[in-house]
């Protein structure tokens, strides 16, 4: 009981928590969003939101880079902090430019933003490729 009420965190439990966070958020982003956008690329390339005014297709390609390529690297724990930056930027744009702030209709975007920002702050943890390489 004393351990349940403690604010201390062992290194092992921290590393397991980071692993769970990385794999969960990375796989959910990849499977539920990235692969769907990849499958329907042709349909979306001319109508994808363009909040930063670079064109529909370049906006879609940047989001695909974040949701597919970066998500895979985060799951593996390879260049984790660098790979979370495009994802965090993607969801900052989604939350504040597409959905116009913290409202009920953008709950998923806010959750992804919080999860990936946490990973950015904590790093990959010991149970990752970065951790195995000693970074």
Structural notes for this entry:
- The protein has 135 residues and is an all-alpha fold.
- The chain has one domain (15-130).
- It is 70% helix and 0% strand.
- The chain is globular, with a radius of gyration of 17 Å.
- The termini are far apart.
Structural class of the secondary elements? mainly alpha
Strand content: under 5%
Order of H and E elements: HHHHHH
Count structural domains. Answer: 1
Number of strands: 0
Helix content: 55-70%
Largest beta sheet, briefly? none
Distance between the termini: 36 Å
* Mean pLDDT score: 90
**Count of helical segments?**
6
Poorly predicted segments: none
Whole-angstrom Rg: 17 Å
What is the overall shape? globular
GO cellular component, one term: plasma membrane
Organism: Niastella populi
Family: Belongs to the DoxX family.
Membrane topology: Multi-pass membrane protein
Helices and strands, with pairings:
Layout: H1 11-39, H2 41-44, H3 56-76, H4 80-98, H5 107-122, H6 129-133
Helix pairs in contact: 1-3, 1-5, 3-4, 4-5
Membrane topology: Multi-pass membrane protein
Subcellular location: Cell membrane
Organism: Niastella populi
Which descriptors apply to this entry?
135 residues; DoxX-like_oxidoreductase; transmembrane helix; 70% helix; mainly alpha; DoxX family protein; 6 helices; globular; cell membrane
Give a quick rundown of the structure.
It is a multi-pass membrane protein. This protein has 135 residues and is mainly alpha-helical. The protein has 6 helices and no strands.
